[in-house]
Amino acid sequence: MRLTRLRATLWRLRYLLAALTVLAMLSAVVSAISDIKAPTSQVVVSSRELPAGSKLGSGDITVADVPQDLVPRGALTHADAATDRILTTSLPAGMPLSSTMLLSSDFLASAPPGHVIVSVTITADGTEELAQPGASVALYAPPDDYSESGEAVLVTDKATVVGIGVTESSSGFLSEESNTRILYVSVPQNAASLVLGYGARTTMQVVLLDPA
């Protein structure tokens, strides 16, 4: 009689027992999946949002575990490799740093085929805020001393901004404050000598071009 009652009780509870069995199986699967962690690598990342041209200090960077799929090529693995270096592009917080994001030989060698990366000093008149990496720009130099037209000289209209240097401010007695900014631009190899020649003599102006 007792065995019959037990069988009847189990029969009435069969759906509940099946549900509990399924839940137990799901819990085991979820637990197993949570134990499987994606492989990570320790790399240097920005600890806060950083503007281009920043000189990185110890408080700007940290070392963190990052999924290997998100680690860029050439990522830095030691904070010392980035400390006191110039950041050439803006970064959000938590972004891994690579050697091509810093002013380095790797960065200068990252120009596309047929181009070189050169630095130019430009007048900081507000336009430079829009001349972010990736922007197509034209570079103009002040008119030559013996120019009859007095028009600015187009040095090149085939420059692409690839990095931003530090902003330099200078002022002196009886002189107005002068602000300049260093840009790193990729230019065709046949225009590099002209850009460097004018850049060594004078501060240039940058004009944004239509990307089309």
Descriptive report:
This protein has 212 residues and is of the alpha+beta class. It is built from 4 helices and 7 strands. The protein is 24% helix and 29% strand. The chain is elongated, with a radius of gyration of 30 Å. The model is unreliable at 8-17 and 170-177 (pLDDT under 50).
Low-confidence stretches: 8-17, 170-177
Strand order of the largest sheet: 3-6-5-4-7
Strand content: 25-35%
Run of helices and strands: HHEEHEEEEHE
Any idea what the shape is? elongated
What's the multimeric state?
A: single chain
pLDDT averaged over residues: 79
Largest sheet report: 5 strands, antiparallel
The count of helical stretches stands at 4
Radius of gyration, CA atoms, in whole angstroms: 30 Å
Q: Helix content range of the residues, please?
A: 10-25%
Structural class of the secondary structure composition? alpha+beta
> Count of DSSP E strands?
7
The rounded distance between the terminal residues' Cα atoms is: 89 Å
